[in-house]
Amino acid sequence: MNAATAIRNGWQKVFGTGARSERPPAIDTSHGPILYLEDITVSFDGFKALNALTLYIDAGELRCIIGPNGAGKTTMMDVITGKTRPDCGSAWFGQTTDLLAMTEPEIAQAGIGRKFQKPTVFEHHTVFQNLELAAAGEKSVWATLLKPLSATQRELVDSVLETIRLQDTRSMLAGALSHGQKQWLEIGMLLMQDPQLLLVDEPVAGMTPQEVERTAELLLSLAGKHSVVVVEHDMAFVRSIAKKVTVLHEGHVLAEGTIDEMQSHPRVVEVYLGE
Amino acid sequence: MRSNTLFSVLLGDRGTKIFFAVLLITTAIAPLLHLAMPEGSALHLSSYTMTLIGKYMTYALLAIAVDLVWGYCGILSLGHAAFFALGGYAMGMYLMRQIGPRGVYGHPVLPDFMVFLNWTELPWFWYGFDMFWFAALMVMFVPGVLAFAFGWLAFRSRVTGVYLSIITQALTYALMLAFFRNNMGFGGNNGLTDFKEILGFDMHSSATRIALFVASAVALALGYIACKYIAHSRAGRVIQAVRDAESRTRFIGYRVESYKLWIFAFSAVLAGIAGALYVPQVGIINPSEFQPINSIEIVIWVAVGGRGTLYGAVAGAVLVNYAKTYFTAAMPEFWLYALGAMFVFVTLFLPRGVVGLGDRFLKKPERVAEAVPA
Ligand SMILES: Nc1ncnc2c1ncn2[C@@H]1O[C@H](COP(=O)(O)OP(=O)(O)O)[C@@H](O)[C@H]1O
Ligand SMILES: [Mg+2]
């Protein structure tokens, strides 16, 4: 019996056939938060990039994380997505999913989507094809060879195109998009997987003011349906979207509250504005 | 519904339309000119020329096999000459067994070279090759399984880029050395030749030549349609994504290794079929088909024609081989230089090959997207 299972697993690995569960398991957020980071420490050659970081994100929340360069914001995202293993601490997705026990693809599969700082769309594919590639569902060779996108998936592509406002560019090559449009397309690719938690690293860097404004609208429209964590430097942008802001400094949380509270917080002013 | 989409895909791009038109006309006209025109007439097509065109068609099939893995999936295989040769050997073994007792030594079962080596029994791996269906199966099975096993090891260990090219080249070279050895049982450096019949028909009759010619054309057309179908399926978009950004593709949930593995194995099967059609037309298969330079030549055909379009690979195979036929007759010592120069020229000035050049002059932009430089 065991041997049979082993053979089947091996078979599926190579041939990519057989049923795999398409939906990630439900995430239990009954206690409020969708993400629990507790006492996370990451050190690089003795230097603590994260130092006993403790942070909770509520389901459906839009949270901004700010902090000076080197505060550990990107490292925090690396820990959540499984790219970096912390030295100690715990990271839970909902009540029941232990992120530290999972690999990068498993975490992505479980419903955490990440947008990196640099846009990484497929430049030689059209906008539509980029979203199609990112669609959730069977990704085996046979499924993609024999089955076109299902009607529901097509509808999802259309609705995501609308959300990211790229309907007019659907058959353009992604490489021909502006920098801002590429960032939106990448967010759209994340949305195709319908993640519960979206991590967005410096989305508006290098954008024109109009693009910044549309990005703010986009992220605001996502909150509620998804939990969104945004790392950003641009204070005007943070002000335009955030209800709650967390300030990171030297690898731990310095203060948390509304943007106004933060801007009048003496320690925050000292480390952040005194930069 | 699906055949409809395939149909529109085939007719949707001009290069493919031209390819099918030319193939159809050639396949219809060439046998006619060969048979109907009197020997002395200017319109008469000699059996030499017809066989030459048939050979080019098998090369074209080999070229689209390489284009599928290289142009679409970014795997620069230098092992396709080996898959081609293995398909050729499988067919050659069938043709050897067809000779039967008519060999020089007149042995009822053993091919001449085995008698010459004082062998008394047929080696086990020659069993079954007296049956055409078995040989036809092996034509696909042997290259396919070798590519699958090889790809399984290479792709799983994430061997990519130039390292993959080098180990595929090494595989080809190792096979060449093995096939050169007499006691491997494949005729050593003489290879397999002196074929008499195929499926009971005289190899040298006009009718057989025409049949082989038409079979090559049909195989080329079917191979083209299969590759086109793959390239335009979602799987085709995935392999192109692998070519452009492999780790990103893996990150969004695709098993990059299994995509590469299947494409590589399928492409090897196509190369095997091409080899099997090549051998009865040229009348010989020997270990020189495994020469490392052959694999490189195939890659040059595709580069010259233009990668990632399929019809470009066909155009490249025909153009370069026509040039080769001309050169090796007129000034054989210069062929390799000409080949190298062609490759350098195309790499520097025609990154999208000859068909890319054609497009630049002919094309009204088909879509907004394609008008924008990538
Ligand atoms: N792989 C690494 N090796 C060594 N040091 C690193 C590595 N990644 C990040 N760091 C260091 O950790 C600190 C936090 O980095 P990071 O998380 O990128 O900060 P932020 O994104 O807030 O600017 C920085 O001082 C950085 O130099
Ligand atoms: Mg950073």
Task: List the topology elements.
The complex is a heterodimer of chains A (275) and B (374).
Chain A lengths: L1 H14 L17 E12 L2 E12 L3 E5 L6 H8 L7 E6 L3 E2 L5 H7 L1 E4 L11 H8 L6 H6 L4 H13 L15 H14 L4 E5 L7 H14 L4 E5 L3 H7 L2 E6 L2 E6 L1 H5 L2 H8 L2
Parallel strand pairs in A: 3-8, 3-9, 6-7, 7-8
Antiparallel strand pairs in A: 1-2, 1-4, 4-5, 9-10
Helix pairs in contact in A: 4-7, 6-7
Chain B lengths: L1 H11 L1 H23 L10 H26 L7 H20 L12 H5 L15 H25 L4 H20 L11 E2 L3 E2 L2 E2 L3 H27 L1 H11 L1 H6 L4 H27 L1 E2 L6 H14 L5 H20 L4 H15 L3 H10 L5 H4 L3
Bound molecules: adenosine-5'-diphosphate and magnesium ion.
Fold and architecture overview:
- The complex is a heterodimer of chains A (275) and B (374).
- Chain A is of the alpha/beta class.
- Chain A has one domain: P-loop containing nucleotide triphosphate hydrolases (Rossmann fold, 3-Layer(aba) Sandwich).
- Chain A has helices spanning 2-15, 73-80, 104-110, 127-134, 141-146, 151-163, 179-192, 209-222, 235-241, 259-263, 266-273, and strands spanning 33-44, 47-58, 62-66, 88-93, 97-98, 112-115, 197-201, 227-231, 244-249, 252-257.
- In chain A, the strands form 2 sheets. Chain A has a 6-stranded mixed beta sheet, sandwiched between helices. In chain A, strands 2-1-4-5 form a 4-stranded antiparallel beta sheet, with helices on one face.
- The longest helix of chain A is centred in the first third of the chain and has 14 residues, at 2-15.
- Chain B is mainly α and 374 residues long.
- Chain B has one domain (2-361).
- Chain B is built from 16 helices and 4 strands.
- Chain B has helices at residues 2-12, 14-36, 47-72, 80-99, 112-116, 132-156, 161-180, 206-232, 234-244, 246-251, 256-282, 292-305, 311-330, 335-349, 353-362, 368-371; strands spanning 192-193, 197-198, 201-202, 284-285.
- Chain B has a two-stranded antiparallel sheet. Chain B has a two-stranded antiparallel sheet with strand order 2-3.
- The longest helix of chain B has 27 residues, at 206-232.
- The chains are: A alpha/beta (275), B mainly alpha (374).
- The complex binds adenosine-5'-diphosphate and magnesium ion.
- Residues 44, 49, 67, 69-75 of chain A line the site of adenosine-5'-diphosphate.
